[in-house]
Specification:
The chain contains 16 helices and 13 strands. By secondary structure, the chain is α/β, with parallel strands linked by helices. It has a domain of 206 residues: Rossmann fold, CATH 3.40.50.1100. The chain has a 6-stranded mixed beta sheet with strand order 4-5-13-10-11-12, with helices on both faces. It has a 4-stranded parallel beta sheet with strand order 8-7-6-9, sandwiched between helices. A 3-stranded antiparallel beta sheet has the order 2-1-3. The chain is globular, with a radius of gyration of 22 Å. The termini are far apart.
């Protein structure tokens, strides 16, 4: 049997490169993609792949407990088990949002809780792959001193945790005053060198790309397609959790757009290997204050026009110049895609409406839910279609957003679903009266 393998391929020049090389773009500036030897993977029939992945589910054998490394052959087939840096990421809960679905008139609504992960976001899925490959490269003698990223919070948390677990130094560039305290303290606690810059994410991204031209600093942002390889396993998990059936519609929030391209790559791979036989519709939701993909979509995807992103509570997607734009457009065209923009009012209300049905949504999930509500109102989704919302982070990382909403202190937001605390004297009659009024 032919051995499984993978390599980098340039999107524009089609040049090929070893995964052990420190390189991110081809000679014409196109991002690299990880290319698998699909002929080799096709030697194993689809039914055998399904049996193998089912057998590994719930395994305690290293490294298969991870949702990513349980599908190692489809991610990094050439890496040795001892080089893998895993914190048992993946296999996140698929929440059946029955009550919310009933309210929206949808019979089959689910939320993939990717934030139920070690550092509280889906970024763990890609970071385990990237840091594992760096671990291998350092063992092979590649002179990488540290791994660096620009971040709006979640990428830096994942990078710092995985590098700390591997004993690899990490450097993070954060936009000063633009991320939550919970996100800021994570890389500090894990020992990263933290630089808070007087700029936005796009400014941080520009600097980190310049800094990592020094090949002793390895770039960890999603323009590095090793990240995409881990994130694409969301598609694998969704289908496996549904008994290898494909959802009808997937709604995902988009900022730098690596997650969108990853989702599509996962479905591409399953289609080519015969594991599934149809495509979902992929919908991207953007905050109206940071919506360059939406604006390009309105113009028929003519080109990306970078913008100065305005402040949004969905801070992780407050990005005006997404590096994975070309990748995302390619996937959206292939998967009958649509793009929606969601205002601050819409995202805040959508998140807290969902909370009242048992979820605990971060603002980015609120963006996806806000887009879903628009689709329902426009009758773009059938009542019986299976719909999945990709929740990218845990709500506990955004406690200020939640608290300010219920205290009616969010700027330019009327808190329709606010649930204020009742502050009362320790008087049983006053307590009874307050409960009577509140409960109707």
């Amino acid at each position: 049997m032919k051995a499984f393998s993978a390599r980098f391929r340039g999107a524009r020049t089609q040049s090929t490169h070893s995964l052990d090389e420190v390189i991110y773009r081809d000679a014409e500036g196109g991002l690299l993609e990880v290319e698998h030897d699909m002929e080799a993977l096709s030697q194993k029939p689809a039914a055998e792949w399904k049996r193998l992945f089912e057998a590994r589910s719930g395994s305690h054998q290293w490294p298969y407990a991870s949702g990513i490394w349980g599908k190692k052959e489809w991610v990094l087939p050439g890496i040795a088990d001892e080089d893998i840096v895993s914190l048992n990421e993946g296999w996140t809960n698929l929440f059946y949002a029955k009550r919310l679905g009933d309210q929206l008139g949808l019979k089959d609504l689910w939320v993939k809780l990717c934030g139920n992960s070690h550092t509280g976001s889906f970024k763990d899925l890609g970071m385990t792959v990237l840091v594992s490959q760096v671990n291998r490269m350092r063992r092979l003698g590649v002179p990488i001193q540290a791994v660096a990223c620009a971040s709006t919070g979640d990428t830096s948390a994942a990078l710092s945790a995985y590098c700390a677990a591997a004993g690899i130094p990490s450097v993070v560039f954060l936009p000063g005053g633009k991320i939550s305290v919970a996100q800021l303290i994570q890389p500090i606690s894990n020992g990263s060198i933290v630089l808070s810059l007087d700029t936005d994410f796009d400014g941080c991204m520009k600097i980190v790309q310049e800094i990592t031209q020094d090949k002793s600093l390895y770039l960890a942002n999603s323009m590095n397609s090793l990240r995409i390889e881990g994130q694409k396993t969301i598609s694998f998990e969704l289908c496996q959790q549904f008994g290898w059936e494909v959802p009808d519609v997937i709604v995902i929030p988009g900022g730098n757009l690596g997650n969108v391209s990853a989702l599509g790559r996962g479905f591409d791979m399953m289609l080519e290997l015969g594991v599934i036989d149809r495509k979902p519709r992929i919908v991207v939701a953007q905050a109206a204050n940071a919506n360059p993909l939406y604006e390009a979509y309105r113009r028929g995807f003519d080109k990306l026009v970078p913008m100065q992103a305005k402040k949004t509570e969905a801070s992780a997607i407050q990005i005006g110049n997404p590096v994975s734009y070309e990748r995302a457009v390619k996937i959206l065209k292939k998967y009958n895609g649509e793009v929606y923009q969601v205002t601050e009012q819409q995202l805040a209300d959508a998140a807290h409406r969902a909370d009242l049905t048992g979820l605990y949504c971060d603002p980015h999930t609120g963006v996806a839910l806000g887009a879903l509500e628009q689709m329902v109102d426009a009758k773009k989704i059938g009542a019986g279609e299976r719909v999945v919302i990709i929740s990218t982070a845990h709500g506990l990382k955004f406690s200020e957003f939640k608290t300010k909403y219920h205290e009616k202190e969010l700027a330019d937001v009327q808190s329709k679903y606010a649930n204020p605390i009742l502050s009362l004297p320790a008087d049983v009659d006053k307590v009874r009266d307050a409960l009577r009024r509140r409960m109707g």
